[in-house]
Please model this.
Amino acid sequence: MGLRDIVTSVESQEKTLTVYGPSDALADAAREYFESQNVRVVYEPVADPADARAELCDDDGPVLSVDVDAVEDLLSERADRDFGDVAPYRAILEHLDRATFTSYDRAQMMTASREVEDRAWRVGEGLLVAGFQTLSTFETQHEAYALLAETDLDVHVYGAPDADVDDVGTTVHPMDSPDIRETWFVAFDGGPSPQQKSALLAEERSPGEFYGFWTYDPDTVDRIIDAVPDTANRPTA
Model:
């Protein structure tokens, strides 16, 4: 099964984010943010600002309650945060496991990728595979990947060979195949901690628009890593 096949096979499951607050401004902003994802946003008024919060529910009921600051931080799309910075919204992403998104642009893909990269950086060892479609796109991530290469991570980057890239300590795989050119992926095998496994996988289905999902499910992460082409050039567990 190829990378694009995995995207197709993941079925979206609608989740509901309920925002409790004295005004509906944050809920409106969240509704706009999640309009390209399978997440329904509901607003519930509360008189006391101290009671403001956000709850995420799935078909089985509530799965997460967070402070509204976490939602505000997520909506700000702070892709430029440094590795190791505390991200209050991380719990939200973890509970949106395999919720599909549509119409993400490249800036949003960079933001989503940083969550997986940051997790790998914090663990500091293990296998990280990343594909940004082309090596010229990877060039824009040199600074971040130079930091990742300073750890004990085994970092492999894939992309169509449309540019010569500087050596930043990663293993670069120039490849020109449909799975590489048409998908964007970042997957971390968790290193010594399987619970740290995470991945982002998306397919560019129209120019500049991506459809895909992120996941913290170990089996799904393994499927993504195993589907990356040229596995002979990567270490096996």
